[in-house]
Design goal:
Layout: E1 3-6, E2 10-13, E3 18-22, H1 34-42, E4 50-56, E5 64-70, E6 76-81
Antiparallel strand pairs: 1-2, 3-4, 4-5, 5-6
The structure holds zinc ion.
The site of zinc ion has 7 residues, from loops.
Organism: Pseudonocardia autotrophica
GO molecular function: sarcosine oxidase activity
Protein name: Sarcosine oxidase, delta subunit family
């Protein structure tokens, strides 16, 4: 079982959450080039090691937050509210 640390509800089973993708800067679709927008949507990196991810607590407080997760071991560091 994997626990995720929701900043508002505390540690909960990962089945209560929805994965929100890597926490990367989203380009403005109104001003960015089609190539950069395509890269943002379809060509995200999949690094081995520590990465920052967005998660949504769908079965709890219904808020988004970011956690650092090691993609090889699933070790998780404390979560923080997403902006
Ligand atoms: Zn929560």
């Amino acid at each position: 079982m994997m626990l995720l640390p929701c900043p508002w509800c505390g540690p909960r089973n990962v089945t209560e959450f929805r994965y929100g993708g890597r926490a990367v800067e989203r380009p403005d679709p109104g001003t960015t080039s089609p190539e950069r927008w395509r890269r943002y949507l379809h060509l995200q990196k999949n690094p081995l090691g520590w990465d920052t991810e967005n998660w949504y607590h769908s079965a709890g407080c219904r808020r988004y937050f970011a956690v650092q997760r090691h993609t090889g071991t699933n070790e998780v560091r404390a979560g923080e509210a997403s902006t």
